[in-house]
Structures are given as structure tokens and as C-alpha cells.
Amino acid sequence: MRASDLLVPYPTVTLATPAIEAARMLADADLPGLVVVDDHGAPFAILPGTQVLRLAVPIYCQDDPNLTRLIDEAAADVFIRELGDRTVRELLPPQPHELPVVSPTATALEIAALMARTRSPLVAVVDGAYEGVVTLHGLLDRVVPA
Description:
Layout: H1 3-6, E1 12-14, H2 19-29, E2 33-37, E3 43-48, H3 49-56, H4 59-63, H5 73-76, H6 88-91, E4 101-102, H7 108-118, E5 122-126, E6 130-135, H8 136-143
Parallel strand pairs: 1-2, 4-5
Antiparallel strand pairs: 2-3, 5-6
């Protein structure tokens, strides 16, 4: 089984996409993450949904989870507003990681190893141009025995 057999179309965002719009895409389509493309449409990064939350959740709540219990429910329900006018570029980690990208001929094991190594639920498939992704769910559906 090759990446071309597991490939599915998948939405992309750009570095300039507003972070709140990226969060809305994640929520509306129940996606585990997004493919960030550069100005030429080539994959630049994979943005897991947890990275969006990292920027939305106040630092003091991340540093001390006990503080989250002190915030009333009404305020806690609107934490996503912390994204404000930020862009997808600001959601990306400062240090570049290995980009989870494969060719259409990559095997299921190659894809699984890359997902495990990069901790990414998505692997972009590129054959000159971005073609789509292999999702963790899609990969497991095909390789785990019934």
C-alpha cells in the first residue's frame, strides 16, 4: 500500500490566514490539524489543532492548571478569543521541525514512521505539487486488521 492509495483531499491555510479562521476550519470539519502552504502552494508546515490551542490558552493556565479552576465558566468559554488578530504564522513553533511530507510512492510503514517521528496526525503527499494528505485515521483504517 502506497501513499497514493491512502491519499485524501485536504484543506490548506496560508501563513497569513487569521488564526481564528484556522480554528474555525478545525472545528467545522472536525480536523486533527491543517496543512500550511507557502505562497507557491507547497507544504510549509503541518499545524496540529493542539498548536492552535497552545496560543489561545493563556500562558498562566498552561503553566499552572490549578488556575484554570479559578476562572468563571463564562470567561472560560470564550478563551479562544485570545487568538485575536494573530495569524497562522504566529501559531507555528519557533524551531522548524521535520516536515511530514512524502511522495506518492511512500509505503504505509514509511508514512507511519514519519507520523510517529514528527508526532503529526497528517502527512502531506507531494509529487511536484501538493496532492493531499494521509491522515492517521485513514492509515490505521487500512493497516489495522478488522
